Amino acid sequence: xxxxxxxxxxxxxxxxxxxxxxxxxxxxxxxxxxxxxxxxxxxxxxxxxxxxxxxxxxxxxxxxxxxxxxxxxxxxxxxxxxxxxxxxxxxxxxxxxxxxxxxxxxxxxxxxxxxxxxxxxxxxxxxxxxxxxxxxxxxxxxxxxxxxxxxxxxxxxxxxxxxxxxxxxxxxxxxxxxxxxxxxxxxxxxxxxxxxxxxxxxxxxxxxxxxxxxxxxxxxxxxxxxxxxxxxxxxxxxxxxxxxxxxxxxxxxxxxxxxxxxxxxxxxxxxxxxxxxxxxxxxxxxxxxxxxxxxxxxxxxxxxxxxxxxxxxxxxxxxxxxxxxxxxxxxxxxxxxxxxxxxxxxxxxxxxxxxxxxx
Length: 359
What we know:
Elements: H1 31-38, H2 43-56, E1 61-70, E2 77-84, E3 88-95, E4 103-107, E5 110-115, E6 120-125, H3 136-149, E7 150-160, E8 163-172, E9 179-187, E10 193-200, E11 205-215, E12 232-237, H4 245-251, E13 270-276, E14 279-285, E15 290-297, E16 308-312, E17 315-322, E18 325-332, E19 335-341, H5 345-357
Parallel strand pairs: 6-12
Antiparallel strand pairs: 1-2, 1-11, 2-3, 3-4, 4-5, 5-6, 7-8, 8-9, 9-10, 10-11, 13-14, 14-15, 15-19, 16-17, 17-18, 18-19
Helix pairs in contact: 2-3
């Protein structure tokens, strides 16, 4: 999203739960990529998509300290966040004491969530390579999703973390959408959310802000997550032999409901299924987006991470957003589900709505 005076209809990615970061990266302006951008867009669309790409290309890394508050919650969640292109980040909760030490990272096809206070961890290995979120094609896909789903209005600029941030409100066109409104302030030079207030359909409000940020920090490296020996670790290895959905259904309970991208919004051209330990998993992916769905016996979600509590229908859902993916957790008919994906959070919440309403 370009953030100059004529900022247009686009969010590169929704703000993180504990850090204001997005799916970022670089793109090669090949004839093929330009052809993809031209399809289904106007000249105005293409202008803003390209300007967003240019802004995101201005930095290779950053370090930020973020703060999140929400209605009905106690102390703010303060996190340290490091991001490094093309596809790596590390995030650690600093406050409050009850959450201190929680770590989340993604790098080299591995996602790690370390719930240090409860001595648990969840590791996903073998993610297929995909285009980072700053590629023209990925920016276009999210741009068009937001253009379809949200009305946008510009608001006065402010300074956040000593940086000029342009105001823009996003209001859902459909009153049934779970993310009803976002009051956002976006960095003028780098098209990155600096502050945002989220209003959800169940009345919960969550505000996230970068208290400090440094772009292109010299010598920035992503820390390794070192798990203590007494940590209970659950691993999902996507490099192992996969099953077809029919093969998996013979091994698992028929009551498992898998998410559906009904309109093929995110181009999940590959679908694989796994049975490992007491977990069943579905892995959908394409060139740009991925979705993991993990099903375990109720009450056995691998980890607890900072989250916004939502309600979809009568089902409580915990939504967490990190720099390169969203994490959703909920129980339904005796099964605990975890979704991990870099698709649009509103789309993921819609999938959860479909899963929990399935007969």
